[in-house]
């Protein structure tokens, strides 16, 4: 069937900010969808509040609305643009929920917008737990015994039928938010309460636990002619009970016989038909009893998903792109398979390699978070590796994680065998303990269990991990023992056959060296002695068809085989190193920059070669660059590619900290680094050299010192006076960064942090209280510098810049300060010899400007600034790195937009019960949204709505602030009262207010008896919370207030500056109607 | 680990590790791209004369069980895998792949770059090869490979067919396909079906029983008269190994039976039918062996994902280079014959129907095993054909 001609314009809803359970995979799918639909000649209208996405680049759609994804705003977009159709399946749960809300509101009917891809009925049937259960029963498929509850009493009634352990799943949440497993009544009640609060419809499914069953996922595609294909069966290494997003997953399925697989396939096809997903991709999850093969259907997502992104990368079958084409009427047999160029999309990929995905966690960022893996997703990112065997793939995935582990390193110190006088029994007990509950490090504990003599049966009993996987890990351990034995005898040269066997098994040079007592360099030397000629690393192509047809797309992975298919060209080429797994501090923003680098190279006629291992991203779409190497970002793996490709140079400055770490080793190995030199990077990163730099330029820095011991730290701190900011050198996202107020705080910090990074000294800076922090981004060609954006943080200095909201242009700074910052940016960039991008952070206190840090590379704010000013900074930066000057690129100065752009950060606190939501120098946010408007108030209000806590228009404001904030709070309170708010405050704050002539109702703190403030919040009597605290002891006091505000989705502010901004926002939404504009209009594109 | 070598007739040598029974074996080396179903593949009689390379890297993961065998033994001449699992994990598993091969005296090889081998076969075509655990001399190995018999023109059906007729009564049981409405059976009566065994896969017989057939399996050499004596409602022509031109006696028998009873052919059965109708067959460069082959039913324009295993194909006078709007029709001495199914990969003919006789056939494997159940409806169509004929 040809494409539909009854529709001309299509609205796409994005997934909003990056949160746990909804990450950049939806930028990948949304970008593919935009491209595919535009290619077909449709007018594409897009709404997404996340500026760090490729999909919101103005070139990708005809109209791009960077506006909050709320039903009101989407309706406004529909009213304004009058699209013929809405494609709801590309933006994750956010888009589905928004779509269902629009259906309910009658918006789609009113404006005659057709739903394409999935109907409202299909979405409902798949998403509503009860409806889904009935649908499955209708087609004779088993689902876990369960019931739906809307309150505690109903929940307990169901529990009585199911028994423990019981799984509680809130309806309509993403990433299983609020879900968990209860083993006893107390846990059960707690989880039920939590889950009811989390579900937007206050509904829970309480389900029979199938803990220990094997778990599988099938990615299914269907077209309007009812052709159905399975893109890929994926097997979870972690059995049921661990959210699939938190599980190690393997493609293809490893332990299913054909009969079982076909039974599952039949079921998936029938589910697709019964649910009625007309076109596109869906994901169906199954559980399988390892004892007898009994199969149950767990759930189905009638949309593209994290798993579909993984399946696309794992097979080369671009699910989202094809789903978009199916949605407009094409059938699978009409779409060509890009990779082979001769076959059609109506086939099932078959793969001749093994794909392993491992999630990446960030528990260390959230003190008090429960690290047990359960049915609610907790991971913040993932890596994927491709190898010819599971063993090779697993080891590649491990080193892709960037956890400083070069393999299945022992956590018990057993890497080189079991030491003498080692207490084996005690270690075994520890390992058993670790294995009983699923945690992020379980894989490594399994390896230790094997080293300590546990059998597959023992390990299976503890973990329920399929014995096939256990045996694979066992084989790796056996080989490690062999290497250790070999090393003892002949440390100098490893037997040739053993070396190649090790490489085939996926061992890194580093790991081999560690096991044999050699050095990675010597292993590399031995390995590349023949110039990688006779035997060495080979690259194979991902071709969807196990080599049955020729692959025309250079999507490559390394392995040690007998034939290399890399076939490098002799064109001018540049390698771009990607950002690796998403984690806090290293997110989609860096992938955005890498993708732009690839685009820029294409425009300059230079071949772009991408190296990355993150399957969620646009950068790892084989369409993005000319060649894609899906590989770990380690020195070894990158050098191998460099040797094979012989590029002009390597670009490090876009992928964040991941490639930056490789700057020195790569340049030592003789690799040319494009753009700013590694020397300059070091000069900015190394604190002592940095201080010299600032002194030379006459720039100010907060007083600081560097301590290598506890004594030294105490001395420095008292010299520069408390409070001080402490951190280890070379930090990522403020890891281990903290403000300490006194000596005891410093002692406690030194105890934990110095241990955490023993090689690096601890930096101590004077903490500038109540200073305004500013972020600035500049671009330079070495001679010319353009300061592209200066952003004023909403929260005061001390809150990590990645967590702070900010405004571009600044909303309260004097012009003279702004000009001075601009000047300082220029001298810094020129002194460092920046070619490409540079970011710096400043603190402004009493009109004095302090330089906090300088990063001569693409920063987190690059996509935000690019969208705010309408200039693709990363793209231009890439061009400067291949020799273009800024004047040549037409960039003489940055446009000064008339609108205001506010960036707000988004946090994963709702995934971690009990964790405090206070902001500090340690970064905690996973994503960001952008609000744009003519005035600051509305831009801020939009950013709050986009982040999920819209500003209230009235009601009761609860105020409880630390003493030093009280004078400032006075103004905030008066403003709120002027705007019609009633004010409640805790005793101290209330007394202060009243003493200054401001009326305030006193409300009990939690410890002061009931009813207290948390009761009020729970009862919905509070609309806004302002709560600032100083010392650690008062944190605990007020924690329940902030948690409850979070649970209720209230607007809450933990800084006075934040509260002030909120007041401006409230004033705006009370006085002026919501208006929206597309990026294209803001930047006068059309 | 003991070394082993694979030598191809064109002189290419791969080194690997010994797998299965210690020794030496020759055959035509082909590759199969299915990700599951290695036991079904090994025991498929159509692989007689061939050495199979599995492109999926891990083989043996879920072990072996008599339930999954497609015939009474392994027929393949040899087995090539990237890695044979040391441990089988599945509740149905009864044996390791290694032991299964050893018991059946099948020589195999593992640990070689099977992707490189597959690409080689794709580029240079299927060819004779030798697996040896015992002879490390490359020149001699290649000579042995070259001396191995080709499958072209050979009657391999004789080697795999049953010795005498027997009745088959077992259905698929719990493993019956459950795909959709099209596979449903509304059995009004039992149909007496005579199934020619050119190397029949058991799942075909099970599927025939599922849809309501009383099946009598007869040897490949059974004559038309002998079949008539069994008073069949329908005749089934099975899959099997080798070149359809190698079994002229079967072609002759089928020629006599066309028009007298409803006939349904699969794979070799389809090719024999094609030759009996006066069409020609040819050898494919490297065959179709896998479980992901898209085939379009030109009557409904629907695509089914099929299980395939064949080295030869039927051709019509005018080669088909694109998907036509309607089924192409050719004239034969038995009236008009329409091409009903076409491969979306290479546009080769995947299905035929006689417009003037109750006869149809497909090149691929609607019984699956291994592979998807998309084409299960064809068994129902066979029943419908017999019903129509019966009235």
Set down the secondary structure blueprint:
The complex is a heterodimer of chains A (1086) and B (391).
Chain A: E1 9-13, H1 25-39, E2 43-47, E3 63-65, H2 71-81, E4 85-87, H3 92-105, H4 107-110, E5 114-115, H5 120-127, H6 129-138, E6 146-149, H7 152-162, E7 166-170, E8 180-182, H8 185-198, E9 204-208, E10 214-222, E11 228-236, E12 249-251, H9 258-275, E13 280-288, E14 295-301, H10 306-315, H11 319-327, E15 354-360, E16 381-387, H12 390-400, H13 424-436, H14 442-451, H15 456-463, H16 467-489, H17 496-504, H18 509-516, H19 520-527, E17 538-541, E18 555-559, E19 573-577, H20 588-603, E20 607-612, E21 627-630, H21 635-645, E22 649-651, H22 657-660, H23 663-668, H24 678-685, H25 687-697, E23 704-707, H26 710-720, E24 724-728, E25 738-740, H27 743-756, E26 762-766, E27 772-781, E28 785-796, E29 806-808, H28 815-832, E30 835-845, E31 848-855, H29 862-869, H30 873-881, E32 900-906, E33 927-933, H31 936-946, E34 955-960, H32 966-978, E35 981-985, H33 987-995, E36 1001-1002, H34 1013-1018, E37 1024-1027, H35 1032-1047, E38 1051-1053, H36 1056-1071, H37 1079-1082
Parallel strand pairs in A: 1-2, 1-4, 2-3, 4-5, 18-21, 19-20, 19-22, 20-21, 34-35, 34-37, 35-36, 37-38
Antiparallel strand pairs in A: 6-9, 7-8, 7-9, 10-11, 10-13, 11-12, 12-15, 13-14, 15-16, 17-18, 23-26, 24-25, 24-26, 27-28, 27-30, 28-29, 29-32, 30-31, 32-33
Helix pairs in contact in A: 1-11, 5-6, 13-14, 14-16, 18-19, 20-30, 24-25, 26-27, 31-36, 32-36
Chain B: E1 3-8, E2 13-20, E3 24-32, H1 38-42, E4 50-54, E5 58-59, E6 78-81, E7 83-84, H2 97-103, E8 107-110, H3 114-124, E9 127-132, H4 138-147, H5 157-160, E10 166-168, E11 191-197, H6 202-210, E12 213-219, H7 224-229, E13 234-237, H8 248-257, E14 263-266, H9 268-276, E15 280-297, E16 302-315, E17 329-332, E18 335-343, E19 349-354, E20 359-362, H10 377-390
Parallel strand pairs in B: 3-4, 4-6, 5-7, 6-8, 11-12, 11-13, 13-14, 14-20
Antiparallel strand pairs in B: 1-2, 1-9, 2-8, 3-9, 10-12, 15-16, 15-18, 17-18, 18-19, 19-20
Helix pairs in contact in B: 8-9
């Amino acid at each position: 069937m040809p494409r539909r001609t009854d529709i001309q314009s299509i609205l796409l809803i994005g997934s909003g900010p990056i949160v746990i359970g909804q990450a950049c995979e939806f930028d990948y799918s949304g970008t593919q969808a935009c491209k595919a639909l535009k290619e077909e000649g449709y007018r594409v209208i897009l709404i997404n509040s996340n500026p760090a996405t490729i999909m919101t680049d103005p070139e990708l759609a005809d109209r791009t609305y960077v506006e909050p994804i709320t039903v009101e705003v989407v309706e406004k977009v529909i009213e304004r643009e009058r699209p013929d159709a809405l494609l709801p399946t590309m933006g994750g749960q956010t888009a589905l929920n928004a779509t269902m809300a629009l259906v309910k509101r009658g918006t789609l009917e009113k404006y005659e917008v057709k739903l394409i891809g999935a109907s409202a009925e299909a979405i409902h049937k798949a998403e509503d737990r009860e409806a889904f259960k009935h649908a499955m029963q209708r087609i004779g498929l088993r689902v876990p015994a369960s019931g739906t509850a809307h309150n505690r009493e109903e929940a307990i009634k169901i529990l009585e039928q199911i028994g423990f352990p019981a799984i509680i799943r809130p309806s309509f949440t993403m990433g299983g938010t609020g879900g968990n497993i209860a083993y006893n009544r107390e846990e059960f009640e707690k989880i039920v309460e939590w889950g009811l609060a989390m579900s937007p419809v206050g509904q829970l499914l309480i389900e029979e636990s199938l803990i220990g069953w094997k778990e599988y996922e099938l990615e299914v595609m269907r077209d309007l002619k009812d052709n159905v294909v399975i893109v890929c069966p994926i097997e979870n290494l972690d059995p049921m009970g661990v959210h699939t997003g938190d599980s190690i997953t393997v493609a293809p399925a490893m332990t299913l016989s054909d009969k079982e697989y076909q039974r599952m396939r039949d079921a998936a096809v029938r589910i697709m038909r019964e649910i009625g997903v007309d076109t596109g991709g869906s994901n169906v999850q199954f559980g399988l009893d390892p004892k007898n093969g009994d199969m149950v259907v767990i759930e189905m997502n009638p949309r593209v998903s994290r798993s579909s992104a993984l399946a696309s990368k794992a097979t080369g079958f671009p699910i989202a792109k094809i789903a978009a084409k199916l949605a407009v009427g094409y059938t699978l047999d009409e779409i060509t398979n890009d990779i082979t160029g001769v076959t059609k999309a109506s086939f099932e990929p078959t793969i001749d390699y093994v794909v392993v995905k491992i999630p990446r966690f960030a528990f260390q960022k959230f003190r008090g978070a429960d690290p047990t893996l359960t049915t609610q997703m907790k991971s913040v990112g993932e890596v994927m590796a491709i190898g010819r065997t599971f063993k090779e793939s697993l080891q590649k995935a491990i080193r892709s994680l960037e956890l400083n582990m070069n393999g299945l390193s022992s956590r018990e110190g057993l890497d080189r065998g079991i030491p003498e006088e080692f207490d084996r029994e005690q270690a075994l007990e520890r390992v058993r303990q670790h294995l009983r509950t699923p945690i992020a490090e379980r894989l490594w504990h399994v390896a230790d269990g094997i080293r300590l003599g546990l059998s597959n049966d023992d390990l299976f009993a503890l973990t329920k991990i399929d014995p096939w996987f256990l045996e694979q890990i066992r084989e790796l351990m056996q080989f490690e023992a062999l290497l250790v034995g070999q090393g003892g005898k002949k440390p100098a040269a490893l037997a040739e056959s053993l070396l190649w066997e090790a490489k085939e098994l996926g061992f890194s040079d580093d790991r081999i060296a560690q096991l044999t007592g050699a050095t990675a360099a010597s292993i590399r030397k031995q390995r590349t002695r023949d110039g990688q000629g006779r035997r060495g690393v080979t690259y194979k192509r991902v071709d969807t068809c196990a080599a049955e047809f020729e692959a025309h797309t250079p999507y490559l992975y390394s392995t040690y085989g007998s034939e290399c298919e890399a076939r490098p060209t002799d064109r001018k080429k540049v390698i771009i190193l990607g950002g690796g797994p998403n984690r806090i501090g290293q997110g989609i923003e860096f992938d955005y920059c890498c993708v732009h680098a690839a685009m820029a190279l294409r425009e300059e006629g230079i071949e772009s070669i991408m190296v990355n291992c993150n399957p969620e991203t646009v950068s790892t779409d084989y369409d993005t660059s000319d060649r894609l190497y899906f590989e770990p970002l380690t020195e070894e793996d990158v050098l191998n590619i460099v040797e094979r490709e012989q590029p002009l140079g390597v670009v490090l400055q876009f992928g964040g900290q991941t490639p930056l770490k490789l700057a020195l080793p790569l340049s030592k190995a003789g690799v040319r680094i494009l753009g700013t030199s590694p020397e300059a990077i070091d000069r900015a990163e190394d604190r002592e050299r940095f201080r010299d730099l600032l002194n030379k330029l006459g720039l100010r820095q907060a007083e600081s010192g560097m301590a290598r011991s506890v004594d030294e730290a105490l001395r420095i701190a008292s010299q520069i006076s408390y409070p001080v900011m402490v951190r280890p050198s070379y930090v990522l996202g403020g890891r281990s960064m903290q403000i300490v107020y006194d000596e005891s705080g410093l002692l406690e910090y030194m105890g934990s942090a110095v241990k955490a990074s023993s090689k690096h000294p601890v930096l101590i800076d004077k903490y500038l209280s109540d200073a305004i922090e500013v972020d600035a981004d500049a671009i330079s060609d070495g001679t010319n510098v353009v300061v592209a954006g200066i952003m004023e943080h909403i929260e005061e200095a001390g809150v990590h810049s990645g967590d702070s909201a900010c405004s571009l242009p600044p909303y309260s700074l004097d012009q003279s300060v702004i000009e001075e910052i601009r000047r300082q940016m220029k001298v810094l960039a020129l002194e460092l010899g920046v070619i490409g991008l540079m970011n710096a952070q400043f603190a402004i206190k009493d009109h004095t400007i302090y330089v906090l840090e300088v990063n001569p590379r693409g920063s987190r704010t690059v996509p935000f600034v690019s969208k705010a000013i309408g200039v693709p900074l990363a793209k231009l930066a890439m061009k400067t790195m291949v020799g273009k000057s800024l004047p040549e690129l037409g960039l003489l100065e940055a446009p000064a937009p008339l609108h205001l752009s506010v960036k707000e950060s988004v946090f994963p606190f709702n995934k971690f019960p009990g964790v405090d939501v206070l902001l500090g120098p340690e970064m905690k946010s996973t994503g960001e949204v952008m609000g744009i408007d003519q005035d600051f108030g509305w831009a801020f209000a939009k950013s709050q709505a986009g982040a999920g806590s819209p500003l209230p228009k009235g009601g009761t404001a609860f105020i409880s602030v630390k003493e030093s904030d009280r004078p400032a709070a006075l103004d905030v309170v008066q403003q709120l009262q002027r705007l019609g708010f009633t004010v409640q405050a805790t005793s101290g704050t209330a007394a202060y207010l009243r003493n200054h002539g401001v009326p305030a109702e006193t409300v009990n703190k939690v410890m002061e008896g009931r009813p207290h403030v948390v009761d009020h919040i729970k009862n919905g009597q509070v609309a806004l919370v302002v709560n600032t605290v100083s010392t650690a002891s008062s944190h605990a006091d007020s924690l329940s207030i902030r948690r409850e505000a979070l649970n209720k989705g209230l607007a809450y502010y933990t800084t006075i500056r934040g509260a002030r901004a909120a007041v401006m926002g409230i004033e705006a939404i009370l006085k002026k109607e919501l208006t929206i504009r597309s990026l294209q209009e803001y930047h006068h594109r059309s | 680990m003991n070394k082993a070598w694979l030598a191809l007739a064109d002189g290419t040598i791969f080194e690997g590790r010994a797998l299965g029974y210690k020794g030496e074996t020759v055959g035509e080396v082909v590759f199969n791209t299915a990700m599951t179903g290695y036991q079904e593949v090994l025991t498929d009689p159509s692989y007689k004369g061939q050495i199979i390379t599995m492109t999926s890297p891990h083989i043996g993961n879920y072990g072996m069980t008599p339930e999954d065998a497609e015939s009474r033994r392994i027929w393949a001449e040899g087995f090539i895998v990237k890695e044979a699992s040391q441990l089988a994990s599945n509740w149905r598993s009864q044996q390791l792949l290694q032991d299964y091969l050893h018991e059946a005296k099948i020589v195999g090889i593992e640990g070689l770059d099977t992707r490189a081998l597959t690409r080689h076969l794709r580029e240079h075509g299927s060819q004779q090869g030798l697996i040896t655990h015992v002879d490390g001399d490359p020149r001699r190995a290649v000579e042995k490979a070259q001396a191995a018999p080709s499958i072209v023109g050979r009657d391999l059906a004789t080697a795999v067919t049953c010795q005498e007729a027997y009745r088959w009564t077992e259905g698929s049981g719990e493993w019956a396909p459950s795909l959709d409405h099209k596979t449903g059976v509304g059995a009004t009566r039992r149909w007496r079906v005579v199934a020619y065994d050119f190397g029949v896969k058991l799942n075909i017989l099970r599927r025939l029983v599922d849809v309501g057939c009383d099946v009598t399996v007869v040897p490949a050499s059974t004559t038309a008269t002998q079949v008539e004596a069994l008073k069949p409602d329908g005749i089934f022509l099975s899959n099997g190994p080798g070149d359809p031109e190698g079994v002229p006696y079967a072609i002759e028998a089928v020629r006599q039976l066309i028009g007298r009873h409803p006939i349904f052919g699969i794979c070799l059965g389809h090719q024999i039918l094609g030759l009996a109708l006066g069409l020609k067959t040819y050898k494919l460069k490297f065959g179709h062996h896998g479980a992901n082959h898209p085939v379009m039913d030109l009557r409904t324009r629907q695509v089914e994902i099929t299980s395939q295993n064949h080295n030869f194909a039927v051709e019509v006078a005018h080669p088909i280079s694109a998907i036509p709007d309607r089924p192409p029709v050719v004239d034969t001495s038995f009236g008009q014959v329409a091409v009903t199914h076409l491969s979306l990969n290479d546009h080769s003919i995947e299905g035929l129907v006689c417009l003037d006789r109750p006869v149809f056939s497909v090149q691929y494997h609607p019984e699956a095993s291994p592979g998807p159940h998309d084409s299960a409806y064809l068994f129902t169509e066979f029943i419908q054909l017999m019903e129509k004929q019966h009235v």
